[in-house]
């Protein structure tokens, strides 16, 4: 499994869960990492970003089957999930960025989400606490971009052809 497949599974599940929660899909963009608005990134009322943080190998196995060597790596990967929201304090239905990230955090830990992601080969190990984050945007204004970390595990399998042995002989030599 490659990083793009993991991110695609996370994007799909986050979109599905937020639409179930009641956020219109037209108001929502879930994408890999964050593009500043000055770089002509698409804008929506609610934006959720997935950024890779770390990748560690937990274990591996090797198994010979016929003429192939199957190598399986068990890995864990951390992603930061963050959000931007066009929050209108006069609109009671408007959701601030911190609440949006908390909703994603809660929804991704639900049994149906965990089951769906596991079916796609992504096992949710841990979702961290939501932390507030403030930064200065390209307009020199303070912007809140809260986030949390999610740790997932997955398997990567490689198959390499190996030569068959025709003959095995042994000999003893004196030293």
Structure in words:
- With 175 residues, this protein is an alpha+beta fold.
- The protein has a domain at 3-53 and 81-147.
- Helix content is 23%, strand content 39%.
- It is built from three helices and seven strands.
- The chain has helices spanning 3-21, 97-108, 111-119, and strands at residues 28-32, 46-65, 68-85, 123-127, 134-136, 142-144, 147-161.
- Strands 1-2-3-7-4 form a five-stranded mixed beta sheet. Strands 5-6 form a two-stranded antiparallel ribbon.
- The longest helix has 19 residues, at 3-21.
- The protein starts with a helix and ends in a 14-residue tail after the last strand.
- The model has no long low-confidence stretch (mean pLDDT 85).
Strand content of the residues, in percent? 35-45%
Structural class of the helices, strands and pairings?
Answer: alpha+beta
Low-confidence spans:
none
Treating each run of at least 4 consecutive H or I residues as one helix, how many helices?
3
- Order of strands, main sheet, comes to 1-2-3-7-4
Helix fraction by DSSP (H/I, runs of at least 4): 10-25%
Order of helices and strands: HEEEHHEEEE
Query: Could you tell me the number of beta strands?
Result: 7
Task: Round the Cα radius of gyration to an integer and report it.
Answer: 23 Å
Major sheet characteristics: 5 strands, mixed
Q: Based on Cα principal axes, name the global outline.
A: elongated
Q: What does the average pLDDT come to?
A: 85
End-to-end CA span: 50 Å
